[in-house]
Amino acid sequence: MLVHSRKGKWAAGAVFLVLFLPLFALPLLVIVAASFATNWSGALPSGPTTAHYTAATRGEAWQALTTSLLTALAASLLALTVGTWAALAAASFKRRGRALLDALFVLPVAVPSVVVGLAVLVAFSRPPVLLNGTRWIVIVAHTVLVTAFAYQSVSAALRRLDPACEQAAASLGASPARVLWQIRLPLLLPSLTAAAGLCFALSMGELSATMMLYPPDWTPLPVLVYAATDRGSLFAGSALAVVLLTATLLVLLAVTRIRTRAAHR
Fold it and tell me: Residue 46: helix, strand or coil by DSSP?
């Protein structure tokens, strides 16, 4: 730590708690409390119940959670594949080429996600690639939105790699493909898993572009959260939000364990 004295550590901890509790922890605690309530007319919620969670883990809500998980999984895998390939290709480019590719991949996150949703809707509503009204258009939109994070993560990891391992393998007669599969990608595995986790989390919470594209048979859970709160069902919406948060955190914990093992290897 940068602070070595005991008083300095206590002061830094106090400042962290003052900033963390009202900005991050308190809103989440409010949502959790609301998810167990039927009424909130005073300082604290009243009418404790688990009925909201019963409804949030069955029927339409369960189907929406499954849809969100499948969409996030597909989008994160596609984004990781495209982003890794682009980062590896950019590493061999000259400075201008890398700058152009960086700008191309950052563009979807530099504009509002609703603009990306509209662009995907217009692009894939006519032949030869007609995806409008299908689940695939949602997956494509999520992939476009999160690929930038995979690309940037892998690009940063590539810049930190020591080229000595690759050079040694090449000097011993290893082909470029073998160097890639047995040297580069294993060294990049911690960054790849971290990028996959980030892409998954971002896809699970995406709403703006999804609202423009989702078909009736492919409704992600954030859409149900928005619909519940929009019609005034704040407590039911809070339970759906907690379920979404829990599912995302469980997947991220699994990804973290994989990343830790990869780093130790």
Answer: strand
